[in-house]
Specification:
heterodimer, A: mainly alpha, Rossmann fold, B: alpha/beta, Beta Polymerase, domain 2, elongated
Amino acid sequence: MSSINQIPVIEAKKGNPLARVFDELVRFCRSRSLFILHYCTGCGAIELPPAMTSRFDMERLGIQPMVSPRQADILLITGYVSIKTLKRVILTYEQMGSPKYVIGICSCTVNGGMYWQSYATAKKLDEYMPVDLYIAGCMPRPEAVIAGLQQLMDSIHAGKANSWEDYYRNYDYYLGNQQKLFGDNWQTPTDVIAEAKHYNLLSKGTLGVHTRLLEQHQQPLEALEMRLGHNLKEPTE
Amino acid sequence: MSQEIAHWLDNLLEEIEGIEIRRKSSRRVRVDVPADALPALLELLQGRAGYIHLSAISCVDWIEDEEFELVYHVWSYESHSLVSAHIRIAREPGVYLSVYDLYQPAAFFERDIHEMYGIHFEGSPNMDKFILTEWDGPPPMRKEFDSEAYINEHLSWQAYNPPWLQALIAEGGGVVIPPEEQRFSRKKD
């Protein structure tokens, strides 16, 4: 024992030994408190009122409707998304706080459904945003919707529902598909790349050709003009 | 009562030249008129027969005849009957007169037809984009617009046998009828 280096030291394990327990607890709580954004696109929305209300009662699983995207966890796409609607859906999706989950209900979100030949509807929802779960059917019954939501709860509990991270990791791919459909000037108010840095999810697929194109066309956002109700009416001549 | 009105209406309509009247039922009359006689017909129907409600203007694209057919459906609250006035206009240049001065709701229908078929209505108050505000392709309801070719160019399809479907097939589910047999345009003889 002539040197200090010879003194045996028991090295502490790196990280918090309670982290796994804590993560498990977080995942459990997360899966038991889900808020569905009250935004419905197509005809499948008609299956949600019975699923939410007393007939099938989604609330017994801890799933409730929520009115604003900032407070919601699940984005339900209940049917066909026309290209015009898809823009709004993407804006809404980007505004939701992570972790967020997307469920595509009905055949239309899978492959266009009965509108497969329509010029106005998008065919593959998962090209434009990562989808956690599809519930196929035209349209699926409330039991199927609830079964799908239970499956989502299980995968959140198991820590497998991580597709929201994919939007940040492969933002260039999703942005490229969006630009292909909406044109090169497509821009959303959300700074997804900054969010990717914030979540520490910046990776190889985040930046690329399409994000460079976005930077070229990007215009700084301006605050919306605030007007009181009585000023909304245009002066008539 | 309705018989009397029907008889009286037939007499009234015969005042217009080149008119062809087909009575479908006691409450429904189909009238075919030359395109230039339509404003006069509608004026007669509205002013003297009480057909004050323009229910709809519909449009049919007869691409082989190189014509558009416009159908004006007018309804009378007094005799509870519908008159459908059919006219044909040339597909090129596809211009017709607006009936906005007779029926104000026509502005709505004409704007819609302008957007979907590209027919220009002279004198209509607004010919701007209506529902397809973010669409810059050709008018999509024209017969020469190939919707399937358009989507094949702009959109992509889900793979027919994706890995997640194979998991479902293993459980006894899956696609029963393949798309080739469902979609007539893709059917192989």
